[in-house]
């Protein structure tokens, strides 16, 4: 009896985790980022956008406790499992994956600290600079960086307005990135 109950709960929790992660990935894969805002459509460019959206999700749930804290942890674990899987799909062998995972984790947490600091201080220029440095390190200037910074600030506000109860039930909504002419 207990196994059946716990099995259902675990299945329900997995469905919520899968739904939330799918929504985060869908937000990170919006074509405007790559087609109009010049985010590199490369494994590293996609990692940057997924990291950014994972940061936004984690930022929203920061300070929450109970189920929300558990969901945030499960989602960050899912993110790193996905990154590990992606490295393996790119042909990185078992010996090289841990070293690259350590580097990518360091990159992720460094970026989240910079983005968090800029959002907390409502420093749009600082956010723009951090995004340009991380997303387009190869570009001397990146004219679309302010558009991405505006999107990040809008996403943070939109996520803050969403009830925690709906997020932990499996629904998170990111804004649509819009082309700017």
TrEMBL record:
Residues 36-174 form the Ubiquinol-cytochrome c chaperone domain. InterPro entries: Ubiq_cyt_c_chap, Ubiqinol_cyt_c_chaperone_CPB3, Ubq_cyt-c_CBP3-rel. This is Ubiquinol-cytochrome C chaperone. The lineage of its organism: Bacteria, Pseudomonadati, Pseudomonadota, Alphaproteobacteria, Hyphomicrobiales. Belongs to the UPF0174 family. Belongs to the CBP3 family. PANTHER family: UBIQUINOL-CYTOCHROME C REDUCTASE COMPLEX ASSEMBLY FACTOR 1 FAMILY MEMBER, UBIQUINOL-CYTOCHROME-C REDUCTASE COMPLEX ASSEMBLY FACTOR 1. Pfam families: Ubiq_cyt_C_chap (PF03981). It comes from the Bacteria. It comes from Mesorhizobium erdmanii.
């Amino acid at each position: 009896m207990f196994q059946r109950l716990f099995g259902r709960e675990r299945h329900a929790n997995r469905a919520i985790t899968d739904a939330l992660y799918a929504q985060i990935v869908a937000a990170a894969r919006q074509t405007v980022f790559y087609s109009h805002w010049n985010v590199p459509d490369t494994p590293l460019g996609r990692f940057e956008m997924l990291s950014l959206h994972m940061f936004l999700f984690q930022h929203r749930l920061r300070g929450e406790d109970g189920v929300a804290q558990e969901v945030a942890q499960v989602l960050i674990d899912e993110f790193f499992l996905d990154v590990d899987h992606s490295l393996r799909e790119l042909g990185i062998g078992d010996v090289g994956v841990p070293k690259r995972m350590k580097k990518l984790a360091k990159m992720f947490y460094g970026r989240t600290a910079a983005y968090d600091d800029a959002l907390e201080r409502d420093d749009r220029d600082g956010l723009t600079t951090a995004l340009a440095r991380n997303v387009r390190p190869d570009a001397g200037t990146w004219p679309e960086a302010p558009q991405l910074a505006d999107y990040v600030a809008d996403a943070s506000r939109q996520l803050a307005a969403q009830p925690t109860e709906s997020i932990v039930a499996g629904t998170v909504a990111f804004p649509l990135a819009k082309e700017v002419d």
